[in-house]
Amino acid sequence: MMHDSINVKGTELQECSIEPLTGWFRDGCCNTDGRDRGSHTVCAIVTEEFLQFALSQGNDLITPAPQFGFPGLNPGDRWCVCARTWQDAAEAGLACPVVLEATHEEALAACDLGMLESHAI
What we know:
By secondary structure, the chain is α+β, with helices and mostly antiparallel strands. It has one domain: Phenylalanyl-tRNA Synthetase, Chain B, domain 1 (2-Layer Sandwich). It is built from three helices and two strands. The protein has helices at residues 48-56, 83-91, 113-118; strands at residues 40-45, 78-82.
């Protein structure tokens, strides 16, 4: 198990989603490491608008990919999304809600904390 991860609020990282099972490590949390180029660190509650935006950026979160253990997402699902994708969506006015307690501090390398906080549930 990894060292205790910290969220964007500076407290212990909370679980994002078990159903569907999310995370770079598929551990239910938005943990990350050096191999996670996309920085899957934002615990998002995806919306249709966000899913379509990600798709337009070449990031298909809708189509199941069983070979990667990926179920395909529906609006309302919680998922560890790429920090840059979330930030780009936010700047386009299409941000989806986020769970700050489950968003890894590494997300702040790409995301504006104020924007995250303004979309927090």
